[in-house]
């Protein structure tokens, strides 16, 4: 079985720092070979960063900006990347994601896998209006948003991590960009305008009658937006050990910020220790390959 992990990165320095965390954590704790990683850059990125990634054996590809009106929709540019079309599975993630362990056990089956959204997306009446105007039928089932507990569509998912079987990836190539641009042209979603890539994904799944196999919280853990006192129905957070951290930005020192949850902080320290080590060895690929064998950070301090 072949798998490609992919993200898209803009040329701002903060995104380049994040993509180094993404790549380092996948190579080390994610147990991935460099050949399974593809980094898509919006335009030409810093030459030194590209040389560094190339020295690790990671493929980089330049993609066109999807739409200047909505930077988060740049992830849709990956749908047309030939580097992803021959893999059995494609894992698309944001670049502000760090892997604390391998997620191979979840890369299975014929369904798209993603995590339920935290906040629920549009209010119920707005979902009805958008679907009616789009000529789509509203789904009959509902799920609860992870944080608020509000009813939302099963296909409305957090966009930080998607696992696509290739057949489903191909089905979305025309449909997802079409609905994304339809919503951008509509331009009346207020604060939800920022989440158009997730809203358009939900619409695409409903048009194509695609069911989502929801991932557990551990596979896309928001370190910022899932506070313990609001996570109704997720009170087992004290027992959770995240495999994938969705940290939404590094701090001023280039580290993943800590949270109020000790078990989550163990994973964050593991990632921060890794990046400190990477700087000491000047991001040397051979050192990372040796690290994969020795795993010195698995003590979960």
Topology:
Blueprint: E1 3-9, H1 13-28, E2 37-42, H2 47-55, E3 59-63, E4 89-93, E5 97-99, E6 112-116, H3 124-134, E7 143-144, E8 151-152, E9 157-165, H4 166-186, H5 196-208, E10 212-215, E11 221-222, E12 244-246, H6 262-280, H7 285-294
Parallel strand pairs: 1-2, 1-4, 2-3, 6-10, 11-12
Antiparallel strand pairs: 4-9, 5-12, 6-9, 7-8
Per CATH, the class reads: Alpha Beta
Number of helices: 7
H/E topology pattern: EHEHEEEEHEEEHHEEEHH
Q: Roughly what fraction of the amino acids lie in strands?
A: 15-25%
Main β-sheet, in a few words?
7 strands, mixed
User: What is the distance, rounded to the nearest whole angstrom, between the alpha carbons of the first and last residues?
Assistant: 34 Å
CATH H-level name... which superfamily? Spore Coat Polysaccharide Biosynthesis Protein SpsA, Chain A
> What is the second-level CATH architecture?
Alpha-Beta Complex
Strand order of the largest sheet: 3-2-1-4-9-6-10
Number of strands: 12
Category by helix and strand content: alpha/beta
Q: Could you please say which CATH topology applies here?
A: Spore Coat Polysaccharide Biosynthesis Protein SpsA, Chain A
